[in-house]
Amino acid sequence: MLEKKVLSDIVEWDIYTWSKGILYWDATLGPILENPSKKKVLDLGARNGGTSLFFALKGLNCTCSDIHEPSEQAKTLHKRYGVSDLVRYECVDCTNIDFPDNTFDIVAFKSVMGSVGANNNFDNIEKAFDEIYRVLKPGGVLLFCENLQGAFLHMFLRKRFIRWSRTWNYLTLDYMNQSMGRFSEHSLHTYGFLNCMIKDNSAINWFDSRLCRRLKPQNQYMCYGHAQK
Fold first, then answer.
1. HSE (CB half, 13 Å, CA atoms) of 74?
2. I want to staple 140 with a disulfide (CB 3.0 to 4.6 A). Which of 91, 136, 166, 174 is the partner?
3. Tell me: the pLDDT tens digits for 38-47?
4. Are 136 and 142 within 8 A, CB to CB?
């Protein structure tokens, strides 16, 4: 089990909700971690290096990438945990990944597709998924966490209070499931309702843990899972 402080450094924001996805990744990686030093990971949109830290702590060789070069904060974080030797830093455009076919054992992203498909550019999202599929080795695994539209309340509050949400492409659960159709198998889960408004509050966390057992998946605002090529 990952410690709370480590999870906080990996997730960066809305820790309680998004850590559900990271803990799922942790469980999913179990069978993959034999000979981790021989495995290669491409972490997309990993600007501040949190998710790349997750992979490096597992002993995996990780390419920490962003559309622009990952931040100095990422490099500082990895140094602090003593994993810099397992991480390389690259500028990578999700829609045109400059690596050969069948390069990576694992590709991962957290809260990326909404930016890739900004202003309802679904063509860019499809290109990104095609590129992810292409650079994964046969049998390779995609690990993902992504924002969903959620309930009407989520979209209303985002548009009212979050400036950049007007261009962000919040995806539907149906669309995410459809995008996974190119893979041989996938598993997709949802979480989060009240935490979208008040983050990492113990009382809200308690209510969310119970609400999300009863709410329809499409009314929750974050999805996570994996897909296998």
1. 26
2. 136
3. 899 999 999 9
4. yes
What Rg, from alpha-carbon coordinates, does the chain have?
17
Measure CA 159 to chain center: 22
Rounded Cα gap, residues 116 and 123, in angstroms: 10
pLDDT-wise least confident of 26-35, 142-151, 208-217: 26-35
Which pLDDT value is given to residue 140? 95
Q: Mutual orientation of helices 4-11 and 50-57 as an angle, nearest 10°? A: 130
